[in-house]
Amino acid sequence: MEVAIPINNELDQRISDAFCIFDHHGDKRIDIREVGTVLRFLGCVPTEQEINEVIAATEMEESAGDVHLSKFMPYVAQLLSERKMEPASPEKILAAFQVLDPEQKTYITKEYMSKMMMEEGEPFTQEELDEMLAVAIDPITA
To answer: How far apart are CA 119 and CA 111, in angstroms?
Structure first.
């Protein structure tokens, strides 16, 4: 028997809509491996640790490996209301870029950027790096 999940506001509706895109069986469940994708679809920029925290808080006890919308929606609505996992502002991104460009050349080489993304902070996988570089590299100077 399907239990109705109340949608109380626009935020709940956004979360439900994003969740349901990845609900491949139409049973208000997603695989835990989709949690990061749903969060990113909602405009969040979570770390792997934050994704794991969302999974830990919302994973179904009776069906390990799944997250149900009834637990996911209120938890994520609270995170979004608290402005958690928001992307950096353009000013903050520019400031970070300037740290990586101390000579003020106004560009960073592909090799240097790849090294930074693979070795510093939360490292990218090769696939993530390839995807990022596909849109980050200036096609004129590449």
So the answer is: 12
